[in-house]
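Single Protein Entry

Contents — chain, fold
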Amino acid sequence: MLGMTSKLVGAGLMLRYSNARASTVQILFGQLVSGAGTGMISIIAQTAVQAVTPRQDVASVTTLYEVAGAIGGAVGNAISGIVWTALLLSRLRANLPATAQSAAVEIQNSFLVASSYLPGSSERIAIDKSYTEVMHVLLIVALAVLSVPFIAMFGMENIRLKEETTEQVRKK
């Protein structure tokens, strides 16, 4: 529960502090909370899967768990890449001043080009706003996806490894 809650709270903090006014500490804090939750989920979920699996199937189930995680990560990366690619250029075109419109594709394709504009310039403000708007969409999608396992965890059996042997868990 703590891991999933940390991950959800961390994503919420990242959404709250993903703007040009946020301090580095605020941005990092959300990422640290989310990362800590991810670390807790990984170990605890794998242990839970192994605890309810017959001994002869532990290797196969562990492999299946890891493969499912890798596939989920790949799907998540693909979705975020699609959202980023689909939205960033349109947000840049909507926010950039007329004098910088011709550079929108170049700005989208290179963070170095985007960061080369002087902080405080109208172009840089528009770039920052565009990045923030797309990041908000990504974080809202992440929160929506994270809400599914968060709700599902309330229906899961609590396996107390210290109090029960593996054989007792299997008999249930």
